[in-house]
């Protein structure tokens, strides 16, 4: 496809999405839920066929020399497909938030003023690798009464096309417009450039992928973007704290899984508990092969831990998102220094305090400028599903529109509604 054709094609997708979004916005909850249940059924009925299409992507990825962990992310195993189907059913079972009216209050003039939750309209989603994101995005779009244009990674094009076809089949079965969910059928990168520059059709762009992709979209988009660049999350062990609990939580926050954006990358420890806490967590990390990049004071304590992988931390380490069995470790004077360090170095994604001091906990919640702030819990909980949102389309570290895990509410907007009985303004 040449550039002119790509531009024409992307604009036709935009026009179709805009038209479909008006029909989706007024679709009754029962019809949207019917589409979601149909999609769950179709996913289960087409496991074998989907794996044939998926095999083409896997073969291409291996031939291109893609690393095995990356190939693994492309797989549509029966288990992955079952999880997608269950996700659709869970969304169908959730209450419909579209049209709900919040905070209706009577004013002195006699009018009543409130806000109604409405769909955002059309969102574009640009994502890499995992093809199951196609189903997550499509199902959230249907439930929230939006239309969406999906642009998956070129490495998953056959899988994404097959999944998008099932989505359109489910929409048609429920009597909804098929164009409510469209997949960009070309792998031409120019399509992304077009999609992020069509404010007449697209209301918001949601990128999900590597830092390079998100930086490019944030720079070039002419449409609002809901994004998070990276997840440099921290766990701060306060003085006073329950040491045994702190070891358990700091272990989980780092080692439960290394690759997600909500894994802790920095461990801050109050000086008053460092001598007791660090040897214990150090032994846990050493046993799991986690490299500790520490400040001189923390390394002096950790040096006594057998088989510990210790490296002096550089200034860069405090800002680093490792996504690997590596953690930065710093001893701080107390809660003030911890908050200052986090606000300076963190990516404002998720940060946690482990403490038995209520005042310190409250200060941390109030003063740490992150999308999710936690007390006595693992940062790994920063997830739409764990927050009871049913599903998430991503996590936002922006402050406008949506912040933190973006579920159904993040795909909606509020408009003011005013109810009167003939009042006029004096």
Can you characterise this structure?
This protein has helices at 3-25, 29-45, 47-63, 68-74, 78-93, 132-143, 157-173, 190-195, 211-220, 243-255, 271-287, 296-302, 335-345, 358-367, and strands at residues 101-106, 112-119, 122-127, 147-151, 181-183, 204-208, 233-237, 264-270, 291-294, 309-312, 326-332, 350-354, 372-375, 394-396, 404-406, 412-419. By secondary structure, the chain is an alpha/beta fold. It is 43% helix and 19% strand. α12 links the parallel β9 (291-294) and β10. α5 runs parallel beside α6, α6 (132-143) runs parallel beside α7 (157-173) and α10 crosses α11 (271-287). Strands 10-9-11-8-7-12-13 form a seven-stranded parallel β-sheet, with helices on both faces. The chain is built from 14 helices and 16 strands.
- Distance N terminus to C terminus? 61 Å
Q: What integer value in Å does the Rg equal?
A: 24 Å
Low-confidence stretches: none
Query: Order of helices and strands, N to C?
Result: HHHHHEEEHEHEHEHEHEHEHEEHEHEEEE
Structural class of the secondary structure composition? alpha/beta
What is the tally of helical segments? Answer: 14
Shape: globular
Proportion in helices: 40-55%
Walk across the major sheet and give the strand order: 10-9-11-8-7-12-13
Mean pLDDT: 95
Number of strands: 16
Strand content: 15-25%
* Major β-sheet profile: 7 strands, parallel
